[in-house]
């Protein structure tokens, strides 16, 4: 566990890598190797792309040089800013180093014992006034999004309990998830629940207002998917079953 929570910084002119040493041989923690490690075209040419997930952007499931299954995600701007800037963040703002921030937050959450993927490496590249970002995470084996599962079947009571517990615990630990939704909650092959997608998320004391904001966003994402997919194995009243479990885990400190 200890080595997994360290970070090694490798710089090469305008490129910065943040590396989790638990995942690399000593000799591989150098700029040339890391440049290849983040090069999606190299994986495509070598037939090492296992799957492409399409969310806001694309997330690539890859087989790396050690035959580990890893997930590579590029950071894109959202909303109106996408049209204008695509993947560029103003270097002036500290928040431009998105991948560095997410890498650190994931390590902090792992230290807290929360069920989030292990960060393997992050990269940010400065070009003039702008910064672009990528992150690589360990794959959660056999994971499916809650959305995918609900297109196939209903949730068991145990799953309701585990999902509510994972979300409530995250809030109790003081993590503000700014995009808590049905596609950012995963259940793996061993029926464990995981939370993902911590871009723009941060540590914050979660008061009632923030609690309500996160829960409302999650509720809305169920409602939206229900509109898109009426045959989803979910009904509005199911959220009335889930919310008390979240609240119960969240309020454990009081
Ligand atoms: N560590 C992981 N292990 C397995 N699957 C993952 C992992 N991280 C992401 N995914 C899959 O990739 C999708 C997109 O990743 P996510 O981090 O949510 O990015 P975004 O929603 O911004 O595209 C997820 O909905 C999930 O299906
Ligand atoms: Mg997502």
Characterization of the model:
The chain is of the alpha+beta class and 254 residues long. The protein folds into 2 domains: 3-138, no CATH class; 144-253, Transferase(Phosphotransferase), domain 1, CATH 1.10.510. The protein is built from 8 helices and 13 strands. It has helices at 31-37, 40-45, 79-85, 98-111, 146-152, 157-172, 208-228, 236-250, and strands spanning 8-12, 15-19, 49-54, 58-63, 69-74, 89-90, 119-127, 130-138, 144-145, 175-176, 185-187, 193-195, 202-203. Strands 1, 2, 3, 4, 5, 6, 7 and 8 form an 8-stranded antiparallel beta sheet that branches. Strands 9-11-12 form a 3-stranded antiparallel beta sheet. A two-stranded antiparallel ribbon has the order 10-13. A hairpin with a 5-residue loop joins strand 4 (58-63) and strand 5 (69-74). The longest helix is centred in the C-terminal third of the chain and has 21 residues, at 208-228. The two termini are 30 Å apart. The mean pLDDT is 96. Magnesium ion binds at residues 55, 183-184, 197. Residues 55, 183-184, 197 line the site of magnesium ion.
